[in-house]
């Protein structure tokens, strides 16, 4: 997650990290806003009373991150 940012608000998390955002969607968190500015997008999710730091740690330790990194590596080959 280099150079990607995550912002935590009350019951929401805002991220420009595509992998983390896909992970949140996969886990069932509702995407409530998409901001697109020039070459950058950010995603806002409703996380309720979940601990945002714990969600990030779950993501970092998950197989999903491995999958995403392998997908990026394969895309570089083509």
Question: What would your notes on this structure say?
Answer:
The chain is of the alpha+beta class and about 80 residues long. The protein has one domain. Helix content is about 40%, strand content about 30%. It has a 4-stranded antiparallel sheet, covered by helices on one side. The longest helix has 15 residues. The model has no long low-confidence stretch (mean pLDDT about 90).
Brief overview:
The model has no long low-confidence stretch (mean pLDDT 89). The protein has one domain.
The count of strands amounts to 4
* Major sheet details: 4 strands, antiparallel
Distance between the termini: 22 Å
Helix content: 40-55%
Secondary structure class reads alpha+beta
> Gyration radius, to the nearest Å?
13 Å
Strand line-up across the major sheet: 1-2-4-3
Overall number of domains: 1
Strand content range: 25-35%
Order of helices and strands: EEHEEHH
Unreliable stretches, pLDDT < 50, 5 or more residues? none
> What form results from the Cα inertia axes?
globular
List the helices and strands and how they pair.
Blueprint: E1 6-9, E2 12-15, H1 18-26, E3 30-37, E4 40-46, H2 52-60, H3 63-77
Antiparallel strand pairs: 1-2, 2-4, 3-4
């Amino acid at each position: 997650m280099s150079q990607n940012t995550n912002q935590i608000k009350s019951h929401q998390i805002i991220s420009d990290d595509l992998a983390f955002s896909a992970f949140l969607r996969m886990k069932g968190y509702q995407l409530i806003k998409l901001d697109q500015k020039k070459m950058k997008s950010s995603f806002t999710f409703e996380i309720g009373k979940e601990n945002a730091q714990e969600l990030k740690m779950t993501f970092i330790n998950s197989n999903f991150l491995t999958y995403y990194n392998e997908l990026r590596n394969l895309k570089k080959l083509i």
